[in-house]
Amino acid sequence: MNKKLGDYYPVWIEFVVIFLIFWSFYLAITAYPDLQDKIPTHFNTRGEPDGWSPKTWINLLFLPFGQIGLYILMTIGAWIITRSKNPIRFINLPVSAKRLQILNGPETEETRKVTIRELLAIKIVVLGMFTYIEYFTVKVALGVEKGLSYWIWLFVIFLLVTAGWMTLNIYRTIWKAENKIS
């Protein structure tokens, strides 16, 4: 089995995610000289800054470097699932091992496809959210904005919907396999 990520989604989408990371770095680096002495490093649930730190490169580039780390981890995870003979072992759902064992052949490939595509969607949403937060961190530090705004909750909703959709699709694959046996 020599599957690759490109067998499950168009790889050019990765360039969109990489662009988000570069944009975060660009925002931080170009704004640095104009920032106030303190920058927001935490926001409350209303999107208001409630944690401030001194203006340092480390504090400002924490999110972009975090994006790189998450990108690498999620890409390696998807690659491992792509190459695995048994992607079912990566499923962590409240499903008995016996129920998961019925997944074989087409169901295994369907589970692999759903998992890899949904990991990509989660990667896009999370890294997009980090870019959004970096953008507003810079804007708040410049005194242009007061906080994140309630739009941040759209990312949270998209993340929950994406995770829920992945879970539902995996359960649907299990139910199809169980009905095929019965």
Question: Secondary-structure map with pairings?
Answer:
Elements: H1 13-31, E1 38-43, E2 49-54, H2 57-83, H3 97-101, H4 106-141, H5 152-181
Antiparallel strand pairs: 1-2
Helix pairs in contact: 1-2, 1-4, 2-4, 4-5
Structural features:
182 residues; mainly alpha; two-stranded antiparallel sheet; 7% strand
How would you describe this structure to a colleague?
This protein has 182 residues and is mostly helical. The chain contains five helices and two strands; from the N terminus they run αββαααα. The chain has one domain (5-181). The chain has helices at 13-31, 57-83, 97-101, 106-141, 152-181, and strands spanning 38-43, 49-54. The chain has a two-stranded antiparallel sheet. A hairpin with a 5-residue loop joins β1 and β2. α2 packs antiparallel against α4 and α4 (106-141) runs antiparallel to α5 (152-181). The chain starts with 12 loop residues before the first helix and ends with a helix. The relative contact order is 0.16.
Short description:
With 182 residues, the protein is mostly helical. The chain has helices spanning 13-31, 57-83, 97-101, 106-141, 152-181; strands at 38-43, 49-54.
